[in-house]
Every structure is written in C-alpha cells, then in structure tokens.
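== Sequence entry ==
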Amino acid sequence: MEISRILMQQTQDRLAYSPGLVLLGPRQVGKTTLAKSIALQYPGALHLDLQLESDRAKLSQASGFLEAHRDRLLVLDEVQFVPELFAQLRPEIDARRQAGRFLLLGSASGQLLQQSSESLAGRVSYLELTPFQAREVMTEQAGAQTRGADLDVLQRLWLRGGFPLSFTAANDTQSFSWRQDFIATFLHRDLRQFGLNMPAQTMQRFWRMTAHLHGQLFNASQIAASLGGLSPTTVGRYLDAMTDTLMLRRLEPHFVNLGKRLVKSPKVYVRDSGLLHALLNITDLNDLAGHPSAGPSWEGMVVEQICALAPAGADIGFFRTAAGAELDLVVTWGNRVVAFEIKYSVTPKVTRGFWQACADVGVDAAYIVAPVAQGWPLKTDTAYPVKVVSVSELSAVF
C-alpha cells in the first residue's frame, strides 16, 4: 500500500528557497522513503546514511567533501550521529548560499535542534514528519458510504497507530508484533545510539507507566516512588529523553491572566496510539473498545492530529483551573484562539466547566471532536461558534 505524504509538498517548497532543510521524525516513520522520493527530482543527488561507518568516513574531511559536491543535493540521514557536522555546514552554506543543497534527516529532536540552532540559524528550515495522519489515509470524497468506510480506516489508524509498517500490516496480529519489536529495539539499541545511557528495563517500566497515565498530569515525584525510589530529577530526565526522541508529547498548560488558580503541571501522552496500545497490551478493536484507557487513547490520537494540522509557530496547550474549568486543547496563532474538547462518544456532551473555560480563555471558536462520521453545530447563545466535528473535518478548522 502506497500512501502519499502531505509533507512531500512542504519539503519541496522549503528546499526551493532554503539552502538546507532539517526533517525530523521518529525512527521508522518514513523519513528515508520521503527523502529518496525528493532526491529523484535532483539529478545526481547523493544519499549518505550516517549510521554506516563507511558513509561517516566520507565526512572525515567534511569541508573538502562538501565543497566537492556543491552542485548536488546531499541527503544526510540520521545526522545526529555526526553532531560536529553542523559546525562544518555553516561556513559551507555561507560560501555558496544556494537553495536545495542539504536535506538533513534526524530522529532526535531536542539535542539535534539545539546543535543546529547554534550554528545554522537562518540557514536551514525545519519540518517534522509524523506517523500517518488521518487526512493521509482517509478519503476526501463526500457521501454516506465513503464516510462509513473512512470511519473504519480511522479505527484502524487509531488501533495500529501511524507508523507505516504497523498501519499497513496484513492483519492486527502482525501489526501488534511489529510494534512490540519496535519498542524492544528502541529501548535496547536506539536509546544508546542517541547517547542516552539509561537502563533499558527501567526505561521500559517508565514508558509503560506513562502509558497507564496517558493524558494525565505528570507527577515526577509519584512516578519516581513507583519506580523504586528514583529521584524526581532522574524521572524528569527520562521524560526529556522520551520527548526528545519523539516518543512522548509533553503538553504544557495554557496560561491566561486570570485571578484564578491554574494547573501548572504538564500533561504527557504517548505520541503514537499504536505504541500506546502495544504498551497496554491492547491487541484488537474489541480489546480497545472495552479498555478503561479507550477514552484517553482517543484523546491522545486526536491531540496528535490537531498538533500536526496547527499552523507553524502556533502555541498549543491545555487549560485547567483548580475550580474545574477545563479544555483539552487550546491553539493560539496570530490573534485567533480556538478551543478543543475531545470526547469518545457519538453523542458528546460538555459540562459547565467547558463553557466556563471558554469564557476564561476568550475563545474565537470551540470544537468538540468525536468519533462521528459528520459533525453538526451546537445550539448555543454564545458569541462564538461551537461545533461537534469529526476527525476528518479538523483540517477545515485551520
């Protein structure tokens, strides 16, 4: 099954005006496949996999190698393995500031962005390739029959997650096995390759614990005690590592200037719903439907869809007060503020805390995202629109 990636056009557009592009994304998400498709449009493009010692050796004298290939697109895969390369790229880009020279692929965001931002500020652009999004696997045609089929596809995406080899597996059993293998490989090999020398068994327990606390406020002290008396600082480092490797999402609270007590702790999600279900040992849709984590899992999946759709530079967070006013997601860009409440119900209802939170935040629009085929407006007397929407209708919000 071949699925077109939405980021393809953005990647082409960025390379058309920027000397370099840093394409971030977790392992096995399809960065190399996308890069190879892009490289076909650049005659003579050269691809180096920096996990391979033979390819790293070609950059032992990086300045000479880069100068010798100034007329070719250089695709540098897993560039976090050669962090010193960023300092070499800066003078080379300055010497010949030509669009479409470098496509850098990386699987760790925090460390990689820190390195590149120090030396390549204003010289490269950044994009993140996520696992498959709903709009990539669902059709855009209207009609009741098509919408029903799309709900089936959405359920498969929710259960299996968006990693290409998991989503396209022949059946749920094969998909589940692939995700279990991915988790084991990530813990025992990938973390060490990223330079994160953390005990694999402890990290596995931490990851499973965050899966059970998916979508809840992160309490480092409580988790540290559950992990056998680790310090909260150590747990914080584990969270940073899993966030930087794009396995977890740390969602910060949205602050407004109110005379109310606001929740200040972040919420944490396992970014890919398929990995979440593998960590929770959920193997099929029947298991998922009856699992106590079904609601939080649906929320996390929708959060990822909205984060991928939000405009570049948008501020994304959740809102909660001590009095109970709450919004699952608040997205702010420019002068616009949009709220999202996520409900795992085909007849979603919102509480008084939702309306109070919308008033506190001062939203321009509010949406209730539910597993429905088609949305509808809510009858309210508010000055801003409030609608129930399906996942496929989220793209129209932005």
The longest strand covers residues 326-333. Confidence is low (pLDDT under 50) at residues 141-145. The two ends are 29 Å apart (CA to CA).
